[in-house]
Amino acid sequence: MVGIYIGSTAGYSGKNLIAAALGLHLQKQGVKVGYMKPVGAMPRREGEAVGDEDAFFMLEVLGLDADPALVTPVLVTRDFKVQAFTDGVGDLMQGIRDAYAELSRDVDVMIVAGSGAYLDSGAYCGVEGARVARELGCKTLLIDRHFGELRYDTLLRARRELGDDLAGVILNDVPEDHRREVDELLCPFLERNGLDILGVIPSDPVMGAIRVGDLAERLSGKIVSAHQRADRVVENFLIGTMQVENFMTHFRRHKNSAIIVGGDRSDVQLVALEGACPCLILTGNLYPNDIILTRSEVLETPILMVRDDTYTVAKKMETILSSHKLRDTIKVTHGARLVTTSVDFDKLGRILES
Questions:
Q1: What are the tens digits of pLDDT across the range 246-301?
Q2: What SUPFAM superfamilies has UniProt attached to this entry (predicted)?
C-alpha cells in the first residue's frame, strides 16, 4: 500500500483539486483508492455523522463509504482551540495512526489531504503536515499555486526538510503570460535543486468560477430579480465606475464577468444587461429602477443588491474568486480533465515505487 500526502505552500492552492483528480485517475486504472483528511477545520454535520466539509465532499467525488470520524480524526472547532491553548489536547497522533490503519486496509493507494498552509500548519497541537506525513509513512506531493508569483523559496525549503520523502511538486494556476518563464527558467532551476516537477497546470477561468447564488451568500447580499437564474456562473468581475463609452470598451473584453456598479448608475447597468453579463452587483444598498428590473427579468440576468460600497465589494470579489472551494460537479469534471492533461501521473507512480 502506498500513501500520498497532499500538501501546499499556501491555503487555497488546489489540494482538493489534485486529490480528486489523482483519485479518479487511479480508479479508472482499477486501483483501489482510500482517502483521509487527518485534520479538518470546517466542521459539518450530515445526519448523525460529524466530519470535515472537504472530507465529505471528497468521499462523494470518489464514491467512498467511510466513517467521517475515521476520515477526519482531528476536527478543529472553537472549543478544540480553546482547549489546545489552555490545558492542551494531548498527543493526537495515535488516533490519526489508528484511523489510517483502519482506512488503508485492503486499499492500494491512500490519499491523505493536508490542511491549511504549508507543512507546519497544526504545529500548535502537534499535528503539523510534515509530522503527519512522516508518522504515516507517506510521501508528500506539494502544490504551489501562482498567487502573483510562485513560492520557489518555500519549495526549496520543503526539499531540504523532507528530502526523499518529497515525491514532487505541481505548479498550479499558472497564467499564460508567465508560462514561458516557468517552463524555461523556473522549472529547470528547481529540477537542478532536486525537485521533481510533476506538472504545470495553466490558469483556467472555469476553476475560479462561482454561481450567482453562492456569490450572493458570500457577499451578504440578496438577489432581487431573475431568481431562477441563480445558477449562472461568474468567472471574473468588472467595475462599472467609468463613463459609459469607456465601460463598453472594457466590457467587450471581459465576457462572463459580473459587473459591480453603484445602484444609482442605471446607464451602466443597462449597457451591462444588454451585453449579456452573467449578473449585476449593485452597491450602496440601492434598489434598481423599474426599467432595469424589467430588462433583467426579460434577459434572465440576476441582479444582486449589497450594502457595501463598490471598492469594498471589489476587494471581497478578489478574495472570493481566488479562494472559492471546489464544489460543483462541472468544476470537478473540468478540473480532473485539466489536471490529467497537465500532470505526469506515470512519473509520480515511478517516484512512489522507488
A1: 666 666 666 678 888 888 888 888 888 888 888 999 998 888 899 999 999 999 99
A2: HprK N-terminal domain-like, P-loop containing nucleoside triphosphate hydrolases
Rounded Cα gap, residues 224 and 132, in angstroms = 48
Query: How crowded is residue 60: how many other Cβ atoms within 10 Å of its Cβ?
Result: 11
Q: Are 301 and 279 in contact, with CB atoms under 8 Å apart?
A: yes
Q: Which helix (H) or strand (E) holds 50?
A: strand 49-52
Domains along the sequence of the chain with CATH: 2-207+325-353 (3.40.50.300), 210-323 (3.40.1390.20)
Q: What pTM, to 2 d.p., does this model score?
A: 0.80
Q: Which residue blocks in the chain are alpha helix, DSSP H?
A: 15-28, 53-62, 68-71, 78-85, 93-103, 129-136, 152-162, 176-181, 187-192, 212-218, 244-251, 266-274, 290-299, 310-323, 329-342, 345-353
pLDDT reported for residue 94: 95
Q: What is the DSSP string of 150-208?
A: --HHHHHHHHHHHGGGEEEEEEEEE-HHHHHHIIIIIHHHHHHTT--EEEEEEP-GGGG
